[in-house]
Write a structure and sequence with these properties.
28% of the residues lie in helices and 19% in strands. A hairpin with an 8-residue loop joins strand 11 and strand 12. The chain is built from 17 helices and 25 strands. The N and C termini lie far apart (60 Å). By secondary structure, it is an alpha/beta fold.
């Protein structure tokens, strides 16, 4: 395939629009505090440097990571116990790039030190991101909310009654029904005509067929995040530190005790100063790691829990040998098709989903916007401005090429951004990889491998998903939206997607004739990665870290597969669920939950 620069001249205006719109999508999907913050009655959100000035006390629970699971967990435990919640990022409140749906793409593109996301590139060559903000992934995702299927709950060994109490606890606080956009209506009707039935209406439940799910964006386009759930905590018991980068769990080993006990943590504040926080001596006090599928295994490794050879390589003293830490990493592969339209479609993120019994999910997004008062920033390597670099050999990629493209982009007509996407994501997946340390700096991204499509069943399901999209695109619901009213040949749409793709995977000449090759070459992420601290291997059924005491991991790193079509709902639920479980374990009926 020829480089993008030489192919643009041969493309018509719509094809050019497809390229640049795809670039924008693939990097999609800071200021004073706003009104929403003042209405929430949140506990004080303190910079980590304030820790040395506040009254020192021992905590019943120290939670590392104020993300999707950590916030509901902290709020629940604080109802009865003293809780310290440490978040490595800043506050989401007042940051309009987080707050408003129309600015969704900016957070993922931002590489500034204050960014709520931290970019990383897996060894597979897929550009990815991890959250670095209070509220975690709920601050930078597409907002879709859908529960796990019942069989997932059963296989996890969870208490079904408590699960069915924990989901609504989240939903009544931050989840809304979308006012479905025209592009999402077209997908709904196209799915049904293509045979992805029945229509299940508006529902949070995971049901085969086509449905409209929930969203954490309200009717005004305002995002409600996991951080909002801290308002459900007891502010007298809950202390929240921002810009607190925990780099080590402190253990104590007593004579006669086989297991090392977690007693505290060490962290750096926003100025680089070092601090320590410790648990109380009460029986049952614990450190709970909720730093996500990248951060949790990374912190265990840095603290001396992991494969002996890897720890030895970095001169980390072994606290407990466990060869499974960082293993079994998975990321649900996503492949998308861009459809140019005659008019600029209304912006929408994920609202409609088709759930097949073959383990393929079909979703969509459309339009592009940016509020006048958004926080503009240099988008760096994650931005649409350098998407074309994927067609240039790595050694030739430079910021000079970025600047040249940015200058040329100013002259493009708005019509080139007209269009929307239909994407497919596979369930599971079955392909797995690993996470290993690069160095002992908590700020560094570990080296992560996902091995996309290594398992043949994952690849066959991707092909099946692309064929479903082809059937959808042949329906009048989408052909009527195109410039000529007759739609486009699938080969042309595939070619647009291949040419514009911004992963760093080499492209092949048969991408549009072999759907298998198309899947491999155009794979991107939908940020649903998980694993690294699996139940039964790194943690037990109660999420206690095996071989230690006083330490748990509660987040998506414990999952073998991604729950439902999108994991957000279930990871939020896990935080509330485990908070209640722990309270009941310690207090029985006195827990009051």
């Amino acid at each position: 395939m020829s480089p993008l620069g030489s192919s643009l001249a041969a493309m018509d205006l719509i094809s050019i629009g497809a390229v640049f719109k795809t670039l924008v999508f693939l990097c999609f999907i800071r200021s004073s505090k706003g009104d929403h913050f003042t209405k929430l009655n949140l506990p004080p959100l303190l910079k980590a440097s304030r820790f040395s000035t506040i009254q020192h006390e021992a905590y019943d629970y120290i939670i590392v990571g104020g993300g999707t699971a950590g916030c509901p967990l902290a709020a629940t435990l604080s109802q009865k116990f003293k809780v310290l919640l440490l978040e490595r990022g800043g506050s989401p409140y007042g940051n309009r790039n987080i707050t408003y749906l129309e600015n969704f793409h900016i957070c993922l593109a931002d590489e500034s030190p204050e960014s709520p996301s931290q970019a990383f590139i897996s060894t597979d060559g897929v550009i990815n991101a991890r959250a670095s903000v209070l509220g975690g992934g709920t601050c930078i995702n597409a907002g879709f909310y859908s529960r796990a299927k019942q069989s997932f709950v059963q296989e996890a060994g969870w208490d079904a009654e408590l699960v069915n109490q924990s989901y609504p606890w989240v939903e009544e606080r931050i989840v809304h029904w979308p006012k479905i956009a025209p592009w999402q209506v077209a997908l709904r009707d196209g799915l049904l005509e293509a045979g992805v039935s029945p229509y299940n209406g508006y529902t949070y439940d995971h049901l085969y067929g086509t449905k409209i799910g929930g969203t954490i964006f309200d009717e005004t386009g305002y995002r409600h995040t996991a951080a909002d759930l801290l308002a459900a905590g007891n502010p007298n018991n809950l202390r929240v530190l921002l810009h607190a980068r925990v780099y080590k769990i402190v253990f104590k080993t007593k004579k006669g005790h086989r297991k090392p006990r977690a007693v505290g943590i060490q962290f750096k504040d926003e100025n680089g100063a070092h601090h320590q926080a410790f648990l109380s001596r009460k029986r049952g006090s614990e450190i709970i790691v909720s730093a996500g599928a990248i951060g949790s295994p990374q912190l265990l490794l840095l603290s001396g829990i992991g494969p002996r050879n890897e720890l030895k390589q970095h001169n980390i003293p072994v606290v407990h040998r466990n060869e499974h830490v960082g293993k079994g990493m998975s990321d649900n592969p996503m492949n998308s098709i861009f459809i140019p339209t005659k008019n600029l479609p209304q912006q929408s993120l994920i609202e409609t989903v088709g759930i097949t019994d073959s383990g393929v999910f079909i979703e969509a997004s459309s339009g592009f916007s940016q509020s006048p008062d958004s926080i503009h920033c240099h988008h760096g390597i994650m931005s649409a401005e350098i998407g074309q670099l994927s067609t240039i050999p790595p050694k030739q990629r430079s910021f000079d090429a970025v600047r040249k493209y940015v200058n040329n982009k100013q002259n493009l007509p708005k019509e080139v951004f007209h269009g929307g996407f239909i994407l497919e994501k596979i369930d599971g997946p079955l392909s797995t990889g690993n996470l290993v340390l690069v160095d002992t700096d908590i700020n560094s991204n570990p080296k992560v491998t996902f091995n996309y499509f290594q398992h043949p069943q994952d690849l066959s399901r991707c092909v099946y998903g692309i064929k479903i999209i082809e059937r959808i695109l042949k329906t009048n619901h989408f052909t009527n939206l195109t410039a000529n009213g007759a739609g486009y040949p699938m080969e042309k749409l595939l070619n647009m997607s291949v040419t514009a793709n911004i992963n760093l995977i080499p492209k092949h000449t048969n991408d549009t004739t072999s759907l298998e090759q198309f899947c491999r070459d155009t794979v991107t992420t939908i940020w649903h990665y998980h694993g690294g601290c699996h139940v039964g291997k790194v943690v037990d059924q109660q999420y206690r870290v095996i071989g230690t005491s006083g330490l748990r991991v509660v987040d998506g790193s414990t999952l073998f597969s991604s729950p439902g079509t999108n994991p957000q709902a279930t990871v939020l639920m896990i935080g509330r669920y485990m908070g209640v479980k722990i309270l009941r374990e310690r207090l029985g009926r006195a827990a009051g939950v």
